[in-house]
Specification:
The longest helix is centred in the N-terminal third of the chain and has 19 residues. The strands form five sheets. Strands 10-11-12-13 form a four-stranded parallel β-sheet. The chain has a three-stranded parallel β-sheet with strand order 3-4-5. Strands 1-2 form a two-stranded antiparallel sheet. A hairpin with a 5-residue loop joins strand 8 and strand 9. The protein is globular and about 90 Å long. The chain folds into two domains: 398 residues, Metal-dependent hydrolases (TIM Barrel), CATH 3.20.20.140; 38 residues, no CATH class. 41% of the residues lie in helices and 10% in strands. The protein has 493 residues and is α/β, with parallel strands linked by helices.
């Protein structure tokens, strides 16, 4: 297995002899033979259901995108857009300038062109063992973090037009996702309406981590996660997503803030960054009450794996049990039994503490946080959560987690009895085709199948992983999502 950026830190899988298994293919992909390998054919014959790639990537042909920016806005904006591309996570990104991602596209020539040429991608889907693919942006991901509003808005308008025009003819087996800028709810709604209404795109990608230069309370350099404590009310956006039958999918970037701010090492910044970014927006949506105010919305969190989701789920239940509005009052210093405390101090204060009864009594009855406004001690009130069952409902009905093919910890989502209340998490397969961490695009399905071969999941769970969960997520939001596709009949079931 090739190493990927998931919270669990997947690694190549050693075979019993101690060598490293690098994949089904070792030779460079042939430009003349796009037939599936024997391994891919065997997997497809065994599973008997479609495979949906819930998170593939395309690579934009940038000169064409820049031309479109010039058509959307004046030449000065197109020039500023071009300059931004050279500093995507440097000056002007809104984040702390960091070591730039470099050599991020796939290495083999055939693979690199596959993600840039829709007809080639379409022709190779059978070779990969994929029936349908959602294709997420390349440069478009970085554009969501651009602090220059004019460049960000013109760039996203142009890049969404590019996606619709370049990939629009291949909708029976793949669909591009529109980039939605999230610095304000108004700009997000405007681009959402244009992308879905005017361009006809039916899937979107957002960032859940927006850099803010200042906050209303005077804080500077903070990350807005859109749900909890945001300076903006994003509820109109979530309502519009529901009206348009859109799944908000988050592919935020976790470097340039927190501890991932190295100016010299991209790998240092990249490790675990997607998990950090997706955990931030997920936690914010839950604690901010978005998931309870919009119970019919589905949310996707991409490329970070599922281990962070398992920890967040368990932590939320544990925190609610000990710090809900009633339980937390047991920790109130005012609840100290003074008479009992005096008896215990008299009986057990010895040595240097023997003559300090008054000091001890005063200390245990005080607390650095004792002056907190007792009307605010219920920190779950905004979330709308009223028990562990509410947390379980949110995670099983509304939240879906994109996982890369080669992460063995994907099995955690399907391990019986591992998580509180015995739930399974809605993990779904994403190939990540189009990025550097897929050295051979022909291997993505065999890598995912290793979960079954290694005995970590059964065939039913594998079916949920590569088909059922993502199909349910998309059709829960939009029952017509797969109309006109090659898998309409299968998804209708």
């Amino acid at each position: 297995m090739s190493g990927k950026d998931t919270d669990g830190g997947a690694a190549r899988r050693p075979d019993p002899a101690g060598t490293v298994v690098t994949g089904t293919h070792s030779a460079t992909p042939s430009p003349n033979d796009f037939s599936p390998s024997a391994k891919v054919r065997a997997i497809r014959e065994e599973i008997g259901h479609p495979v949906i790639d819930g998170d593939g990537h395309l690579v934009e042909i940038l000169p064409l995108v820049i031309e479109m920016v010039g058509e959307v806005a004046d030449p000065g904006v197109a020039q500023a857009f071009t300059s931004y591309l050279g500093t995507m996570f440097g000056e002007g990104s809104g984040f702390t300038p960091v070591r730039q991602p470099f050599w991020g596209s796939p290495g083999p020539t055939v693979d690199r062109l596959t993600t840039a040429l829709p007809a080639l991608m379409y022709e190779r889907l059978d070779q990969f063992g994929l029936d349908f693919a959602l294709l997420y942006p390349g440069v478009g991901l970085a554009l969501m973090s651009c602090a220059n509003a004019e460049v960000r808005q013109a760039g996203t308008r142009a890049i969404n037009t590019y996606y619709a025009e370049i990939f629009g003819s291949y909708g029976d087996r793949m669909t591009p996702t529109a980039v939605i800028p999230m610095f304000t709810p108004d700009e997000a709604i405007a681009e959402l309406d244009h992308a879905v209404g005017a361009l006809g795109l039916k899937a979107v990608v957002m960032t859940g981590v927006v850099p803010r230069p200042a906050r209303s309370d005077g804080a500077t350099g903070w990350i807005d996660t859109l749900g909890h404590d945001s300076d903006f009310d994003y509820d109109p956006l979530w309502a519009r997503c529901q009206e348009l039958r859109i799944v908000p999918a988050f592919h935020g970037i976790g470097f340039g803030w927190g501890s991932r701010t190295s100016r010299s090492n991209y790998v240092y910044n990249h490790l675990g960054n997607f998990a950090a970014a997706q955990e931030a927006i997920c936690r914010s949506l839950i604690m901010g009450g978005v998931t309870t105010r919009f119970p019919d919305l589905r949310f996707a969190f991409l490329e970070g794996g599922v281990t962070w989701a398992a920890q967040l789920y368990a932590d939320l239940i544990g925190h609610w049990q000990k710090r809900n509005g009633q339980a937390i009052r047991a920790n109130d210093p005012a609840a100290i039994d003074v008479a009992l405390a005096d008896r215990l101090i008299a009986a057990h204060a010895s040595g240097p503490l023997a003559n300090r009864h008054d000091v001890i009594r005063g200390s245990v009855r005080s607390n650095p946080s004792a002056a907190v406004d007792r009307a605010t001690v219920d920190e779950f009130v905004t979330s709308g959560i009223d028990g562990a069952a509410d947390v379980a409902r949110i995670f099983t009905e509304q939240l879906f987690f994109g996982c890369e093919a080669d992460d063995p910890l994907n099995a955690l989502a399907f391990t019986p009895g591992m998580l509180p209340l015995g739930i399974r998490l809605n993990a779904f397969f994403g190939s990540d085709i189009g990025h550097w961490d897929v050295p051979d695009q022909r291997n993505v399905l065999p890598e995912a199948w290793e979960l079954v071969e290694d005995g970590h999941v059964g065939r039913e769970a594998f079916g949920d992983f590569v088909f059922g969960n993502v199909a349910r997520m998309l059709t829960d939001a939009n029952p017509a999502f797969f109309d006109g596709t090659s898998i309409k009949v299968a998804t209708a079931k």
